[in-house]
Amino acid sequence: MSNTIPLSLDPPGTFLYTGEMATKGYNLTRFGLSLRRPDNRKAFLADEEGYMRGAGLSDTEIALVLARDWTGLIEAGGHLQSMLKVAATVGENLWHIGAHNAGMTADELMAICPRKVSALPGEES
Predict the structure, then answer these.
(1) How far apart are CA 9 and CA 2, in angstroms?
(2) CA distance 86 to 80
(3) How far apart are CA 8 and CA 93, in angstroms?
(4) Angle between helix 38-46 and 80-89 (nearest 10)
(5) Cα 36-79-58 angle, rounded to 5 deg
(6) pTM for this prediction
(7) pLDDT beneath 50: ranges in the chain
(8) For residues 93 and 105, what is the distance between their CA atoms, to the nearest angstrom?
């Protein structure tokens, strides 16, 4: 028995990041990229909503971040690499973003992936 799931590359399964999307999500992307700095990550974790208001996010965008709605953030125009900075700051990663997009848990997504990672850089294998 195969552990595969049907995958569609047609919308809504795929998000095309266009210029219009980039413009729409400018504040989200700028906010996410601000988390590259350790002092900004610390400030965000101390007061998530206050930090996001200071970054100019709308109430809807703030709600998406607080809900960790990775799919909604991408649909709202947040660039994936920028949203990955947000995920990493709150202890999540690309597996969580992909799993949310696929409607499953990160563990379920990892279980069906054909390629396995036995060690990460810097870890003993």
Answers:
(1) 20
(2) 10
(3) 23
(4) 60
(5) 85
(6) 0.78
(7) 1-3, 5
(8) 12
